[in-house]
Each structure stands twice: as structure tokens, then as C-alpha cells.
Specification:
Arc Repressor Mutant, subunit A, DNA binding, mainly alpha, 3-stranded antiparallel beta sheet, globular, transcription
């Protein structure tokens, strides 16, 4: 492959991610929520409670990034952190009622961001499948 910037897949992924997150960030600002906070709430809204280790693995975040983020979300009243009764070494994270309510409010943000792209639904599904396969191959 030619080493010019225009031929670098990593550069296209970087720019795509940067631009999408910029759009999310603008929409999340009114909730005092970062993109990372948003995806954390998405992860928790479908599988909770989760240990910090499980959550970090799902989001590809280390505990050094996740712990301050969870503290901020807890301060806002969106999540709770509690020791597991089965194993006190594990800290379980769950959405609060306020967190679920906010999660519902935020539900259309992804669709709004997608609508700005020139992709149709089938192209978006195909891209999602390819990127999922790509990420899975990197995670091995």
C-alpha cells in the first residue's frame, strides 16, 4: 500500500471518529455529558449491574479512565456504585432512575448524527458489520 496519507485506513478511521465525536459532544453538552459518559450509559442501560472490569472491557477503557468518569456520572445522579455482596472486591455500577430517564432522552442522538452522513441504512449496516469484524480481529 502506498504510504501517503490519503491511502491510510487508520487516518480515515481517526478522522471519522473525531468528526462523529465532535458532533456527539455538541449535542451532549446541554446534559454536561461527554461522549465517553454517553457510551457508558448506553452500555449500562442494556446490561446492569456491571463490574468496573466488565464495563471497562466492553468500552475498551482502563480503570484509570473509567473511575473518574463514573465518579462524575455518580455526582450527576446518573449512576450508582456499590460493592458486590458476593465479592466485596468488585464494584458494581448501575444506572439510577434519573440515569434511565436521561438515557431515554438521549436515545435519538445517534440517529440524528447518522442522518448527517450520506450513507443509507444498508450502507450503514454494512459498515457496522465490517468495523465490528475489524475491532474483533484487533482484540485477539
Amino acid at each position: 500500500m502506498n504510504a501517503s496519507l490519503d491511502n491510510q485506513l487508520c487516518f480515515l478511521l481517526y478522522v471519522s471518529s473525531k468528526e462523529i465525536i465532535k458532533d456527539y459532544t455538541a449535542r451532549l453538552k446541554q446534559y454536561d455529558l461527554t461522549y465517553t459518559g454517553y457510551i457508558t450509559m448506553l452500555a449500562l442501560s442494556h446490561e446492569e449491574p456491571m463490574t468496573i472490569k466488565e464495563l471497562g472491557s466492553k468500552l475498551f477503557l482502563d480503570s484509570g479512565t473509567l473511575t473518574p468518569l463514573l465518579k462524575r456520572l455518580e455526582t450527576h445522579g446518573y449512576v450508582t456504585r456499590a460493592r458486590s455482596k458476593e465479592d466485596e472486591r468488585n464494584l458494581l455500577v448501575s444506572l439510577t432512575d434519573e440515569g434511565f430517564t436521561l438515557r431515554e432522552e438521549l436515545g435519538c442522538i445517534g440517529e440524528d448524527v447518522f442522518e448527517k452522513s450520506s450513507l443509507d441504512t444498508e450502507q450503514a449496516k454494512a459498515l457496522h458489520a465490517m468495523l465490528s469484524q475489524f475491532v474483533a480481529s484487533l482484540d485477539k
